[in-house]
Amino acid sequence: MAPQSTIIITGGTGSLGSSLARALETSYPGRFHLLLTCRNPDDEHAKTISTFLESKKGSFALEKLDLSDLDGVRTFVGDVKARVASGELKGLVGGGLVNCAANQTFFKGQKWKDVMYTVNCLAPALLMRGLLGVMLEGEGSTVVNVGSGAYEIGRCDYFEGKEESEGKEGEKVGFLEGMKRYGSCKLVTMMVGFAFQRRLYTVYPENKVHIINLDPGSMNAGGRLLGSERHWVFPILYGILGVTGPLLRLVRKDAINPPSVPAKAIADLFGSPKESEGRVWKTGKYFILDDEKKPNALSLNDGKQDEVWKNVGRDTGLGDGLKV
Ligand SMILES: NC(=O)c1ccc[n+]([C@@H]2O[C@H](COP(=O)([O-])OP(=O)(O)OC[C@H]3O[C@@H](n4cnc5c(N)ncnc54)[C@H](OP(=O)(O)O)[C@@H]3O)[C@@H](O)[C@H]2O)c1
Predict the structure, then answer these.
(1) Atom of ligand 1 at shortest distance to CA of 221?
(2) How far apart are the CA of 279 and the centre of ligand 1, in A?
(3) CA of 301 relative to ligand 1 center, distance in Å
(4) Which is one GO molecular function term here (predicted)?
(5) Does 271 sit in the ligand 1 pocket, CB within 6 Å?
(6) Has residue 164 got a pLDDT over 60?
């Protein structure tokens, strides 16, 4: 029988995304239809994960989606909703959305065309909010926004006022500034998720949609780390982390792992819900790998979350309210 639940994984052919697809199919054979999105469904990474899923007779589709193209994201959302309505996908019952894709190119960008902000903040918000109707209809859905410990150095208003910023479009920024931009993206998406969960509780008090921000820790992704335009520091840093990993992990289990470790932590979120998880959530949750943690005070500040919600609602055109 065809799976009744769908899980959408953006960056589905990336290191973590493809490991997650493997983990889901291995842990729950035949339970989920996996809808993997990527920019190039014909590249070697797409072929590798397709071959694996075919060998397992998994139900899956690979679809082209460039998250820097917000019109394309809107069309994708519309397509998914139409397919759910027409019964081709049975809905996101027990399934959900994992926002895995990320852009970590350290370039200056003007606000309205900043690829980093668009891919990491606006596209996940459009997907999460756009698919709300589908998620509300089911028995429960989980949204996992893949975060990063770098959120701690981020600013929640980092992208505000950037349209006036000096600096040439595409000009490179230094490593620390780049990390601050990246961390700010991760912080913004975390706060939008938390604000979303609070609004869901207020507007749909019976809903079973759960928003999670999960930090996968650092991953030894076999050289694929965040695309071809990564900063030169990463290969060196991750080379050192890779060698010292077994020692570092004695102190912190998220220090450096193969992507299969965070993939398993995410896949487990889609397993049999624990008693407490079956309930309505009033606030979003934050995990580092499989441990629930309290994130920093800024990310938990309701007033700041509301500001970020408003800014992202403005930039996506979704506005402030929850439209289904
Ligand atoms: N690696 C780490 O140590 C680490 C640490 C903390 C958090 N994370 C987070 O973990 C997640 C996965 O990282 P990873 O290491 O698995 O990276 P990765 O292998 O480089 O995967 C990144 C994915 O993002 C996709 N992507 C980039 N720009 C895109 C766009 N415009 N439209 C659609 N997709 C786009 C890439 O697609 P293409 O195949 O088209 O390039 C790729 O699938 C990210 O959210 C990252 O921030 C990673």
Answers:
(1) 15
(2) 31
(3) 28
(4) 3-beta-hydroxysteroid 3-dehydrogenase (NADP+) activity
(5) no
(6) no
Ligand 1 center to 149 CA (angstroms): 15
Residue among 98, 145, 219, 266 to mutate when testing ligand 1 (max atoms within 8 A of CB): 219
Average pLDDT estimate for 22-31: 95
Concatenating the DSSP letter of every residue in 256-320 gives SB-THHHHHHHHHHTSSPPGGGGSPPSS-EEEETTEEE---HHHH-HHHHHHHHHHHHHHHT--S
pTM: 0.93
User: From CA 116, how far away is CA 145, in angstroms rounded?
Assistant: 15
Q: What is the DSSP letter of 172?
A: B
pLDDT tens column, 224-270: 666 666 778 887 887 888 788 888 888 888 888 999 999 999 999 99
The full set of domains in the chain, from first to last, is: 5-316 (3.40.50.720)
Is the CB–ligand 1 distance for residue 219 below 6 Å? yes
Between the CA of 11 and the centroid of ligand 1 the distance, in Å, is 6
